[in-house]
């Protein structure tokens, strides 16, 4: 029979060794300085754009980890609305997108505030507003065990069983005290931001205090811990990195929830943070190239071309999936195929587009030439 970490006598006194992590912790501090420096060197409007992209990536990927796929357009619109940048013609239809975007903004705006029960309840309500099937803005209360399972009905595989609901208020009170005491200026301050972030995420996920939304709120807590550790809102999407290899995340979490020696979990989580920092640096470089591109071609693009290029560049450094072709151009601009072909030929002639692959004719695909 499996014994989980919360059932063991040393819970929640996590033990670990930082041996072998010194270089990674140094790299984290170095990357924080480099990413911050690059971001601060951007023009103000470009700074804001890169920030929106980072928050949108976090909002979408933290939901995708849980199998929830949001409207990209609504996520961007929700973040812009929170920043006071929403175009009056933009409408937000996806309530889930609005909720997770609200959470991203709230976590960023209150990074230096202590964590409280009321804060967590507020985050939960933002995330799941309108969901009438579960208890929102309160700890779970159901008597049956909360299990993390996969597989078809009758062939379920149990990955984890959380503490009984009756224990949740006491466990969460202890967690919140630990979180605030371990802040850099707390009674038992943990100076290494990635270590505190890793422990906070694991600790919260192990308690699993809500009926739903625990993963998304747990990753928000990890971000808050990183921000407090560096003394300003952190600029990265941890969920983007986790979602790219969900199996490694769940395997590492599963192992960590069976022992209170969490050394292996720290290695996994710190590496994930470093990967997220590298992705952010790529995004900042991309945003600068994008701004330079529009400076160069500002007066040489018509409204259709500008709309298509903006849509293509929304995908970030990964690029527009499959490239642009005449069929997609027509769909985006509601124009004729002949006009679409002329527009794209013009973009090739001025150097704004580059051809992808060797295919020609109707199979010709293009990418933005940054």
Describe the structure.
There is one protein chain. The protein is mostly helical and 370 residues long. The protein has two domains: 5-285, Fic-like fold (Orthogonal Bundle), CATH 1.10.3290; 302-368, Winged helix-like DNA-binding domain superfamily/Winged helix DNA-binding domain (Arc Repressor Mutant, subunit A, Orthogonal Bundle). Helix content is 57%, strand content 5%. It is built from 14 helices and four strands. The protein has helices spanning 22-41, 44-64, 72-82, 95-109, 117-128, 168-181, 193-207, 214-230, 238-244, 246-256, 263-297, 303-313, 326-333, 337-350; strands spanning 147-150, 157-161, 353-356, 365-368. The strands form two sheets. It has a two-stranded antiparallel sheet. It has a two-stranded antiparallel ribbon with strand order 3-4. Helix 6 (168-181) runs antiparallel to helix 7. It is globular. The chain starts with 21 loop residues before the first helix and ends with a strand. 35% of the residues are buried. The model has no long low-confidence stretch (mean pLDDT 94).
Can you give me a brief rundown of this structure?
With 370 residues, the protein is mostly helical. The chain is built from 14 helices and 4 strands.
Number of domains: 2
- Top CATH class of the largest domain: Mainly Alpha
What is CATH's topology name of the largest domain?
Answer: Fic-like fold
What sort of overall outline do the alpha carbons produce when their principal axes are compared? Answer: globular
Measured by DSSP, the beta-strand proportion falls in under 5%
Which strands sit side by side, in order, in the main sheet?
A: 1-2
| Helix and strand composition category | mainly alpha
Can you tell me the CATH superfamily of the largest domain? Fido-like domain
Task: Give the strand tally.
Answer: 4
**CA-atom Rg in angstroms:** 23 Å
Our count of helices gives: 14
Through-space gap between termini: 57 Å
> Main β-sheet: number of strands, strand sense, barrel status?
2 strands, antiparallel
SSE order: HHHHHEEHHHHHHHHHEE
């Amino acid at each position: 029979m499996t014994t989980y970490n919360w059932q063991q006598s040393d819970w929640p006194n996590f033990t670990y060794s930082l041996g072998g992590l010194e270089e990674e912790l140094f790299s984290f501090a170095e990357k924080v300085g480099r990413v911050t420096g690059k971001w601060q060197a951007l023009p103000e409007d470009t700074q804001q754009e890169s920030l929106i992209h980072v928050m949108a990536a976090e909002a979408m990927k933290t939901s995708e980890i849980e199998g929830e796929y949001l409207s990209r357009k609504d996520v961007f619109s929700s973040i812009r609305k929170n920043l006071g940048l929403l175009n009056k013609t933009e409408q937000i239809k996806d309530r889930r997108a609005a909720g997770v975007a609200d959470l991203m903004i709230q976590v960023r705006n209150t990074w230096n505030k202590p964590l409280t029960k009321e804060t967590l309840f507020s985050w939960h309500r933002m995330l799941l507003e309108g969901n009438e099937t579960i208890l929102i803005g309160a700890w779970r209360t159901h008597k049956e065990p909360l299990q993390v399972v996969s597989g078809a009905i009758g062939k379920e595989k149990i990955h984890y069983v959380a503490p009984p609901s009756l224990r949740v208020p006491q466990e969460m009170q202890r967690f919140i005290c630990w979180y605030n005491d371990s802040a850099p200026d707390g009674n038992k301050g943990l100076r290494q931001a990635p270590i505190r972030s890793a422990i906070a995420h694991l600790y919260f996920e192990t308690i699993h205090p809500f009926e739903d939304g625990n993963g998304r709120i747990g990753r928000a807590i990890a971000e808050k811990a990183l921000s407090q550790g560096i003394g300003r809102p952190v600029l990265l999407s941890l969920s983007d990195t986790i979602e790219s290899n969900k199996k490694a995340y769940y395997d590492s979490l599963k192992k960590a929830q069976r022992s209170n020696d969490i050394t292996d979990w720290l290695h996994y989580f710190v590496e994930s943070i470093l990967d997220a920092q590298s992705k952010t640096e790529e995004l900042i470089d991309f945003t600068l190239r994008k701004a330079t591109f529009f400076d160069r071609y500002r007066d040489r693009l018509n409204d259709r071309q500008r709309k298509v290029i903006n849509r293509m560049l929304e995908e970030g450094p990964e690029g527009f999936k499959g490239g642009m072709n005449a069929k997609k151009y027509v769909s985006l601009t509601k124009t004729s195929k002949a006009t679409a072909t002329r527009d794209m030929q013009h973009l090739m002639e001025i150097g704004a587009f580059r051809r992808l692959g060797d295919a020609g004719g109707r199979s010709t695909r293009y990418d933005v030439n940054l």
